[in-house]
Amino acid sequence: MSRNVAKPRSSMPRLRKPTAADGAQIWSLVKNCKPLDENSMYCNLIQAEHFADTCVVAELDGEIVGWISGHLIPARQELFVWQVAVGEKARGLGLGKKMLFELIERDVCDDITHLKTTITEDNDASWGLFKSFTRALGGKLADEPHYERDTHFDGHHDTEHMVTITLPEARALADAA
Asked: Which of 11, 41, 78, 86 could bridge 27 with an S-S bond, Cβ 3.0-4.6 Å?
């Protein structure tokens, strides 16, 4: 008598750099993670291919369940994190923070002194993630209105606050992780 046994779920997603082949799954994940802005699938393909060094995917049992898109700001020692998405299957694992640490520990980020992102005032999940990350890192967080509702979004989107996290010295980074 044979039994149909389901494959056990991995306990923690595998973190890696994305490839262009991940673009469609990344797009689908972001689409299902409200209130994130949906970009085009083509945008996610370009991010995964051209900015792989500053983006992270989290894969669990062959499915992409986490995503960070980011890029180095030209001529500055700063990393801008555009989006952090964690799918339902991976929530409650601290995955967002793990992906942020994975990202800043990459060689391409060795010289960054600040991590930046924008967050609307009412996005409690993002504020919680970045404040928790800053505490664990031993950094300092500051914010100010940046892309304003009326000036930049023609009244169609809430003001985005520029969040700046000052990173501690490199030797303190290793201890924080």
From this structure: 41
Compute the distance between CA of residue 139 and CA of residue 111 in angstroms, rounded to an integer: 15
**Which H or E run contains 139?**
none
- The residue among 126, 132, 109, 113 whose CA lies nearest residue 160 is 126
How many angstroms separate the Cα of 23 from the Cα of each of 10, 34, 42, 63, 108?
23, 18, 8, 12, 22
- pTM of the full structure: 0.86
Mean pLDDT of 14-23: 96
Beta bridge partners of 162: 118, 144
Q: How far apart are CA 53 and CA 47, in angstroms?
A: 10
Alpha carbon distance 83, 125 (integer Å): 12
